[in-house]
TrEMBL record, chains A, B:
Organism: Oryzias sinensis
InterPro entries: AH/BAR_dom_sf, BAR_dom, DP13A/B
Gene Ontology BP, a term: signaling
Family annotation (SUPFAM superfamilies): BAR/IMD domain-like
Listed GO CC annotations: endosome membrane
Domain BAR: 7-208
Name of the protein described by the UniProt record: Adaptor protein, phosphotyrosine interaction, PH domain and leucine zipper containing 1
Length: 222, 222
């Protein structure tokens, strides 16, 4: 089993072509993880929505059966056998509906919460950092450009000092944002396994508990 | 427990106000059953649709996990522990998805089929018969009207004979459609309990079998 690869923070200042090339590999990997996780997120969202709908529909069915007695049937409305049979059905379906509702809640907490956090927080943060890094790189390039054009002409000391200051602050900014970006890309390599496994474990656990609950409440008693 | 009430077919020919009044009660009861069954049908359709969606979403999740190995992750793509763990998740979720698919099929056969048949065949037939009966009653009224206007004037024998013939055939038609309509309204009184209980039994049976299947395939082994 290979170790987790890292973008060396100490290379950020030099910003060599080798570092840029390694950054490209990390960005490609991050894009692949992001793409895969988004697909998994969408599939899990579909499971969660369907489970919620199933819970609501089962509850509605149980409610309809409970309301049978309130219906005004001009003929045979006082049929007690039918009425009590439907009430028993309503009771069992109501228990099923409660189990469905518990499962929905557990899926929300143990499956949707971690994968949504990963998608909306970690992956989004990386996109933001990528943009911030791009902007600071562009600013740095502009400052360098301005400085190099300056040196050919004979400008006054004040303008020259401003240009030097500009190069210094923009390089400092770029260095900082690059380290921050590298750091987040490295962290993703540590988080990516947990990010996939945690919602899956949550799904399995919720599902297994639901099956046990159904078993108990439907009193099949194997 | 009261017996099942009937519209007397032998009263159809006389078509007295009492018979019409009793018909009104049966029609009201039929409308109430139809309304209640349609609500139950919609709730069951929602359960069935949600179960189908759950089955499809679970299958998709399992397929995504199986495809993990085919993803191109530039970093750490050869992590065998992660890969085999996800394959095991995929296998279990695939089994859950098969159970969901079996449940969907059973709900289609044992719940949706009987209630759809009742709604689309029995209840629709009654609406059609009501219309047919209405038309033949109107035709009969027209024929009676024409005959009564005839007798005041002095028409020739041919026209008179035609009017008599018209009254005869339209009354015969009305009598037949009324008996047919009464017969279907009576049948509904016999069918209404089965129509409610059959899809509910189908739902319960499918659900119980699914829980047992889940238990076996998830090998919890209580």
């Amino acid at each position: 089993m290979p170790g987790i690869e890292k973008l060396p923070l100490e290379e950020a200042l030099e910003d060599s072509p080798q570092t840029r090339s390694l950054l490209g590999v990390f960005e490609e990997d991050t894009a692949a993880i992001s793409n895969y996780c988004t697909q998994l997120y969408q599939a899990m969202q579909r499971i969660y929505d369907a489970q919620n709908e199933l819970s609501a529909a089962t509850h509605l069915t149980s409610r309809l059966l409970k309301e049978y007695d309130k219906q005004r049937f001009p003929l045979g409305g006082d049929d007690e056998v039918m009425s009590s049979t439907l009430q028993q059905f309503a009771k069992v379906i109501d228990e099923l509906s409660s189990c469905h509702a518990v499962l929905s809640t557990q899926l929300a907490d143990a499956m949707m919460f971690p994968i949504t956090q990963f998608k909306e927080r970690d992956l989004k943060e990386l996109l933001t950092l990528k943009e911030v890094f791009q902007i600071s790189s562009d600013d740095h390039d502009t400052a360098i450009n301005r400085y190099s054009r300056l040196s050919k002409r004979r400008d006054n000391d004040k303008v020259r000092a401003e240009a030097v200051e500009d190069v210094y602050t923009s390089r400092k900014k770029q260095h900082q944002t690059m380290m921050h970006y590298f750091c987040s890309l490295n962290t993703l390599q540590y988080k990516k396994k947990t990010a996939l496994l945690e919602p899956l474990l949550g799904y399995m656990q919720a599902q297994v508990e639901a099956i046990v609950d159904w078993f108990i409440s439907s009193e099949i008693g194997i």
